[in-house]
Structures are given as C-alpha cells and as structure tokens.
Specification:
Layout lengths: L1 E6 L5 H10 L4 E6 L11 H16 L5 E4 L2 H15 L5 E2 L5 H6 L4 E5 L7 H10 L5 E5 L3 H6 L3 H13 L7 E4 L8 H8 L8 E3 L2 H11 L16 E5 L2 E3 L9 H6 L8
Parallel strand pairs: 1-2, 1-3, 2-9, 3-4, 5-6, 5-7, 7-8
Antiparallel strand pairs: 9-10
C-alpha cells in the first residue's frame, strides 16, 4: 500500500505520522512546495495551480490515495484536484475539526491562517456543525511560516499574539492549519489558564489518515505478525529529496525519518 500526502510545506507531517502509526507497513510519499510558502495570502487560482503541481508530482509515484494535508489547499483546490485525479486516485481533503469540537460544547476558538479565518468555507462549517455554540475565530499571522522554519522565537511570538486574542473562557481550541499540530503543546501552554480545567485541542491528522484508509478499503491496523516498515519518498518542488532539517526538529518528523528507502 502506498499513500501520498501533499501540503505547502511540513504541515503534512502530523497526518503522515498518524498514517505511519495506523499502518506502519504503508509506503508514504510526501510532496510539498516550501519555496512558495505561505499559500494563505495567495489567490485561490494560485493556490490551485501550486496544489496541482504537488499532486501531480505525488501521483507520478502511483499511490493508492492522495491526502491533501493542507487546510488552505482543501479550501481552494480540492474540486480541481478531484476533477483531475479521481476516480483513478482517491483524493482526501482536510477539514478543521469543528464538528467534534462543537460536540463537546464551548466556548470554542478556531486558530487558523488569516486567509482561512472569516472565509465563507470556515463560516459554513461553523454554521453547519457549531450552531448554538460560542465560537471565536482567531487569525494566527506568521505562525505557519515560523513552524515551517522551526523558528522558535517566531513560533512563541505568533502563539502569544493568538493566545491574547483568544477569550479567557475558551475550553476548546480547533487547530485549523495542519502546521499548528506540530506545536500543539506550545499552543496548549499559551492558552491554558491556571485556574481552569485542561484545554481540549482538536486537530485533524488522525481523522484524515483514518478516512484515507476507509476510502481505499484498508484496515487501520496491519495484520498480526512481523511488519516490514514502509518506505518514505520526499518530493520538494517536484524533485526527490531528503526530509528538510526543520522537519527533524519535530517528533512527527523523527518518527518518519528512520525508515528504509521506498519500494517501487
């Protein structure tokens, strides 16, 4: 089994790591275009063009499914990706985990890129899945870019700004950008109030990985017995490469790194 994932940058790591945990035998293809980050400020047409480039590079490796592990690309490019690649290649998008967050009550904060915050797409999800729940949309300028470059000072500064915009009574935070899941602990620490119950964070990585397996009719866990570890192929702007150094500063990148070369 081979699963491809695409994103602007290393935001695909959480979903790739979730897939590695669910199916350690699966070969993974990670396709990104970090030279053009961030995608959030770009026009929908530009995002679509760049997403298609990443998807085509991944599709050349003949995966069984393609995960769009990027909220911005899912918002703007999913119809174009599906029109070009399906039904031959199932395409799975990433949706902010607003529905499960709202099921736990509120108040809720949704941390997302400035482009996604306030967008008709996100407002539609809030209307459909969080009606009657108090929701605050929190734009996080610069956070995804700082995470991409493992810029500790930049991450801390961007998280502090977003935390200051988050109401004190919030009980749940939705991580509406895949990059943010890489610094979930820092976000939790910044939002947590000393006199309040533990903040609940909702990311999308685990659910999206599980959905990809469902789409191709694969079990979420390998059969009993020895498992041959799956391989890893990394594609940066269309060319095969190693995992970026910044990826290896996160636990998810380290989980993916010590694998054999991809097969086939």
């Amino acid at each position: 089994m081979k699963i491809a994932l695409m994103d602007s940058g290393i935001g695909l790591l959480p979903t790739a790591a979730a897939m590695r945990r669910l199916r350690p035998d699966a070969d993974l293809v990670l396709s990104s275009d970090p030279a053009t980050m961030p995608w959030g400020p770009r026009t929908p047409e530009d995002v679509t063009e760049r997403a298609l480039g990443c998807a085509r590079a991944a599709a050349a490796h003949r995966p069984d499914a393609l995960i769009v592990a990027c909220n911005t690309a899912s918002v703007h490019a999913l119809p174009a990706l599906r029109a070009e690649l399906e039904p031959g290649l199932p395409v799975i998008g990433t949706v902010p985990a607003i529905k499960p967050a709202a099921a736990g009550g509120g108040p809720i904060a949704i941390w997302a890129t400035p482009a996604t915050t306030g967008s008709p797409y996100q407002r539609g999800l809030i209307r459909d899945f969080a009606d009657g729940v108090e929701v605050t949309e929190v734009a996080c300028p610069g956070l995804a870019d700082a995470v991409q470059h493992a810029d500790t000072e930049g991450i801390d500064a961007a998280v502090a700004v977003a935390a200051a915009r988050t109401p004190r009574d919030v009980t749940t935070v939705v991580l509406g950008c895949t990059h943010y899941e890489l610094v979930a602990d820092r976000i939790r620490a910044a939002v947590q109030r000393p006199d309040a119950p533990p903040i609940v964070l909702h990311g999308s990585a685990g659910a999206v990985a599980a959905q990809a397996l469902r789409r191709i009719g694969a079990d979420p866990f390998p059969p009993d017995g020895p498992v041959t570890p799956g391989g890893l192929t990394v594609i940066l702007s269309g060319d095969e490469a190693a995992l970026p150094d910044a990826a290896l500063t996160y636990a998810e990148g380290v989980l993916l790194a010590p694998v054999a070369p991809a097969r086939g």
